[in-house]
């Protein structure tokens, strides 16, 4: 009986699906989505993500062009130019649309499969690399409410540099804690979701458990999706060229011994103002604070601090006036279109900054800030061909993002909230991508130098150490300590089977070489081949 009902539901769902491709899910933390949004001039903003419901009172549910493109990993093909066989609705179900979709005048539900079946090899392991992921992505929206929910079960055998990250942090990047699986493997699940409410024409409220990304570049020095998902509440408001967001999230501190249960909790609140000054120039302001649930200073239970629930006040003056030991930050982000297909962008993140010290050029440890500069561009050609290129520079001063009490550093679940390297580094990275119809090739490279610790003292790169362990007060320079150079590149070649959920067959080859004055060069070459719905960003680019 249950099988009959399920088959009937699937049959009716397929009959109810419309021909037009509705894409309700927006992936601001998906690098490929950010590239396509840039190429197709499809505005990518945090506001009303992932539910771009029309603001008018028309009879039918309407979606913005941004939402329709949010999961379309190719520009739309003209149906009249397709071969006759490919216009069949069942063929398009496989090559263009979602697995299951039901659209009515008042609501829309979509289901996407999540799979990643791949195998490969690395020169530093006898065990074969593999990824076995099975899951789903469910999205639904009405005139006032919207939701997404995701679940995936994973078993992985990974390259040694990811093994090393897990050994140090106890987690995998972007995934969170994992369990050992057989010999040398990992078993873990991935679950996210969000419930949103359109409170007014220009106001949206949402509860969720997901990663976030703020910025226009490949990296973000403000808030990246390198860590695992975390629970949050956010309120978003839009008026003309101005978009405003307030968010409060709960984070975890995993630096404590495994015997400590439950894990120490901390909170992260921020304001984010996004202003399109002109059609070509955008500027954004970020104001954030991190505090522990239990004060590391006197052990007092603070919980959620009411001072930080005010969405219209700067946090740093509050912290100062309350004689607080909390960790406050400010940041500036900007981007400008130099041409219609060429954009420059940058970020400036201020953890602590003293103008007098900067004028004296003393290189004080209190000069804790990070800088990003980048440029990206694209070129569209005929016959559904385009190229995309990006060049980016990131630099972070020693001790940035850290705190005297590590529980209040800028991290979640033993992973940085900003750049994967933490602090005390320079990085130059590039990215190139060529797309022709459903074929896509890409090349990514990162060359960095970062200062690692050589003892229990902190040279400023490890944000999980207290800055009270610093090696000095003056003459603190970027890459001080054990200067570890890291050259990492990766090339991929793929064929997109379904442009709706980015289901693709992909061949990938990568190489990562690290060395320092006290460490001989270690080079790891790895490759993989498989079929995947490449929607989620699995951080392995560090």
Describe the 3D structure.
By secondary structure, the chain is mostly beta strands. Helices cover 11% and strands 46% of the residues. It has 7 helices and 24 strands. Strand 5 (171-172) and strand 6 form a beta hairpin.
Short synopsis of the structure:
The longest helix is centred in the N-terminal third of the chain and has 15 residues, at 2-16.
Q: Could you name the key traits of this structure?
A:
542 residues; 11% helix; 24 strands; globular; disordered N terminus; mainly beta
Question: Can you count the helices?
Answer: 7
Quickly give the structural class: mainly beta
How much of the residues is beta strand, in percent? over 45%
Percentage of helical residues?
10-25%
What's the story with the biggest beta sheet? 18 strands, antiparallel, barrel
Shape: globular
What is the typical, i.e. mean, pLDDT?
A: 83
Distance between the termini: 51 Å
Give the beta-strand count: 24
* Poorly predicted residue ranges: 1-27, 42-81
What radius of gyration results from the CA coordinates?
24 Å
Chart the SSEs and their pairings.
Layout: H1 2-16, H2 31-39, H3 65-69, H4 89-95, E1 100-103, E2 107-122, E3 129-142, E4 145-157, H5 160-169, E5 171-172, E6 176-177, E7 179-181, E8 185-200, E9 203-210, E10 230-239, E11 242-252, E12 265-276, E13 281-292, H6 315-321, E14 327-339, E15 342-352, H7 355-360, E16 368-381, E17 385-396, E18 411-412, E19 415-416, E20 425-436, E21 439-452, E22 482-498, E23 503-516, E24 519-533
Antiparallel strand pairs: 1-2, 2-3, 2-24, 3-4, 4-8, 5-6, 7-8, 8-9, 9-10, 10-11, 11-12, 12-13, 13-14, 14-15, 15-16, 16-17, 17-20, 18-19, 20-21, 21-22, 22-23, 23-24
